[in-house]
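idk why but the lab printer keeps eating my pages so im just putting this in chat instead. protein + zinc ion:
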Amino acid sequence: MRDASAVITKKLYEEDAYRTEFDAVLVSVRRKEDSVLDVVLDQTCFFPEEGGQCPDRGELGGLSVLDVQIEGNEIHHYLEAPKDALPEAGAGIHGKIDWPFRFSNMQQHSGEHLFSGTVHRRYGFENVGFHLSPSEVTLDFDGVIPEQDIPELEREVNAAIWSNIPSVVRMTQREDREGLTYRSKIDLEGEVRIVTFPGIDSCACCAPHVARTGEIGICKVVSMIRWKGGVRVSILCGKRALEHFQKLHGIVVQTANDLSTSMENIFPQVVKLKNERQQLLARLKDASLKELQYAAKEIASDEEHALLFSSGAELPAVRKVVNALCAEHPGYCGVFVGNDEEGYSFVIGSRQLDCAGLGRQLQETLGSKGGGRPEMIQGSVARKREEIEGAIFSLTRP
Ligand SMILES: [Zn+2]
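predcted complex ->
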């Protein structure tokens, strides 16, 4: 086995972003965990996790590539491998990247260049953070992009996409970069790879890009939030933008069908339903209070305790009814609001008995929550009406 510390893995993805298969020589093979091999090759098409972008997926020698990391000049491939499978260093191996996954990353990443370049040209803001994972693409800028400018920015970026501009990649030495304008997150020494979309953007970058901007398809901003004095913008390009639109379209169509209205009418319809709901809730509360007051009058005046159950009365009304019951009955007077499925909120009062003591007992027997003073307690209990009545009456029985 050769010393892996001297290895320089040749980055085939830098030369040709569209190459999906390759043959390589195993330079070092180590078992990292029981079922994971750490493999370094003389050359690879696998882009490692770098510059905020997630690593490529695929297969090496028929084994799944779980992760790809770069350490110095070595690219480590972490393979899912059973215990007995240990290929030998020096042997040849065939690799194949997951092309749909890679191409989607190329779309997202190249879209990021166009977006960041356009923002830089319009506002002078720098992209100070980039994150491309299988689930999101975020761009951090050191200034605040006005919300109302987003549609115009999207039009400009997509016009650049549809102009089908070719990307130009070149390796530069320090002297080549003198007088060259390009975006970079750090001051760079030595050899630097510069990726240019002429007229739109020039940026120091290590990742694979599309050959022509038309391949990005579309770029859409899906959110923008304030982030460390600037903004964090989430974008989606190409395939991911289509999948996002399909998902949103599905929700909109389903909602419109369910409301028996057109897509354009969803919003006014929802506002109308919200208002109706508020009015109905107010009427329901009113009716519940009346029902509660009526039920309170129905309890025989010589009953010691008085318990009432309601489906939707409001707390101030409940207190009012409990106080009225306390004036009539010497024992525990309680109102429980809710239902058997979701449980009940309650207020229990008494002019003569210790409600706080009853509260503690209900906590033990029914697992209720809440508290209060000896004269009145308030809480909630996730039990059925039958169980609540049973518990209170058994506690109050001499
Ligand atoms: Zn790039």
